[in-house]
Amino acid sequence: MVVSGPFYRRRIPAAEIVGASVALDDGTTTGWLNWPVTRSAADKIVRLNLGGSASVTLDLADGSRIQFVAADLAAAQAIHDSIEAPLVP
Question: Where are the domains of the chain?
Fold first, then answer.
């Protein structure tokens, strides 16, 4: 899977994804600058946010996480299902 945003791109092999979850989200940015891609070293997370009310968080084998903010819960669930399906044996 390839994750990309403004000035950010990362290829994540399916074997590195150890979990995925969906949650409600307030859609706000976590940094002091209103930028769609933010990082938090303390939480080991990269957040891709174009606004919305739900998010999908991927847990990676190295302990880091990638989070996508989606338009709504249905969109977040669809993203989750498309990622989770290839991981199920």
Answer: 17-43
